[in-house]
């Protein structure tokens, strides 16, 4: 029995490593494509836009305006595609500021407040990207499927792990009915990739809450910490 347990644990660990390697490979490929769109195509479009702005159209301002509008739309589309593939500027801007930028962009749709407790330290870029994606996915789901007016993000570092709590004041949901949806699956897949543990707390008509504990090392936090 001991040998079987050891073998089973080894197989589970191997599967976890394969999943993590697969997710990291996907993120690297997304990053490569996103950087290409952001740095190459985006810059080329900006240069064309500048040239167009200085183009002598001999008074035909209607043609110039139409072309300029189309160019602006292409630039916005390139930025949007790049950002959806990978948060290109997260590493240079920093996780907290990048999330604050997301909050500012969504402020016309929902009230979002974030509290990062003193002592927060920069994490591995893979962890920060996954966490950003989780916040983004959670927020998108709330805006699309909930009647929430407010959303809160709480982040605190502990000696052994980082705690992240995301909650809203919407209509809540029945986990068993939505767990197969892509939104929940994407969130839980990213949580697993960080070797983290999580817990959903949702009450109909009283909002929902997601608690995540992300280890600072390879050891999982105590499950009781989620209560």
From TrEMBL:
Catalytic activity of the protein: ATP + protein L-histidine = ADP + protein N-phospho-L-histidine
Superkingdom of source: Bacteria
A single GO molecular function term of this UniProt record: protein histidine kinase activity
Protein known as: histidine kinase
UniProt keyword terms in alphabetical order: Kinase, Transferase, Two-component regulatory system
Histidine kinase/HSP90-like ATPase domain span: 128-215
Pfam families documented for this protein: HATPase_c (PF02518)
Principal EC category: transferase
InterPro entries assigned to the protein according to its UniProt record, in alphabetical order: HATPase_C_sf, HATPase_dom, Sensor_HK_TwoCompSys
Any one biological process term the GO annotation gives: phosphorelay signal transduction system
Presence of keyword rRNA processing: no
EC numbers, comma separated: 2.7.13.3
